Amino acid sequence: MTPDALKTLETVLDVIEQENVQLKAGDITAAVSLLARKEAALADLDRLDIVCKRDSDAGASIECCSVKLPETARRLDDALQENRTLLRQAMTAQSLIVRLLTSALPDAGAKTQYSNSGGYVAKREQPGRAFRNNA
Predict the structure, then answer these.
(1) Which of 55, 75, 78, 51 is nearest to 65 (CA)?
(2) Could you name the domain of life of the organism this protein comes from (predicted)?
(3) Which tens digits make up the pLDDT trace of 68-98?
(4) Measured between alpha carbons, how far is 107 from 61 in angstroms, rounded to an integer?
(5) How many whole angstroms separate alpha carbon 4 and alpha carbon 50?
(6) Alpha-carbon distance 58 to 41, whole Å?
(7) Which domains are present in the chain?
(8) CA atoms of 2 and 10, how far apart (whole Å)
(9) C-beta separation of 6 from 66 below 8 A
(10) CA distances, 66 to each of 2, 11, 21 (Å)
(11) d(CA 29, CA 79)
(12) How far is CA 28 from CA 75, 83, 85, 135, in A?
């Protein structure tokens, strides 16, 4: 099971590192394009069952797992922590952009100075003095 486990961990690590590179570059579209691969790799990781058994005849001094497995697992954990941070930053930035864009929109009830055909219509308001003079 160790070769399969190592291959699965390396596949997930590869996808996460690629996504991290795209997120650091600010290329959200490229990061999103990796989503299907990421979900498939994480599903494989979820199905993985790593069991290290020691051979009682070999003694306790022999490693039960590949030497690369713990190192790869540590690298994956580091990459996942960085991925969480980068995803939080990307979501915060997108949220701020959406708020900025929506706050710039006029209120739904606000009257514009444009006609139905799109031409500008000057305000026809008269100052208070004009009303007094006409009275």
Answers:
(1) 51
(2) Bacteria
(3) 888 888 999 999 999 999 999 999 999 999 9
(4) 73
(5) 9
(6) 34
(7) 2-53+64-102 (1.20.58)
(8) 12
(9) yes
(10) 7, 17, 28
(11) 20
(12) 23, 13, 14, 64
Q: pLDDT tens digits for 11-32?
A: 999 999 999 999 999 999 999 9
Residue matched to tokens 């570059």: 25
29 beta partners: none
Q: Take residue 101 and report the two structure tokens written for it.
A: 């864009």
Asked if residues 80 and 67 have their Cβ atoms less than 8 Å apart, the reply is no
Contacts of 41 (CB under 8 A, 6+ apart): 8, 11, 12, 15
Q: What does the alpha-carbon distance between residue 10 and residue 98 come to, in Å, rounded to a whole number? A: 36
The alpha helices in the chain, defined as continuous H runs, are 2-25, 28-33, 35-47, 68-103, 128-134
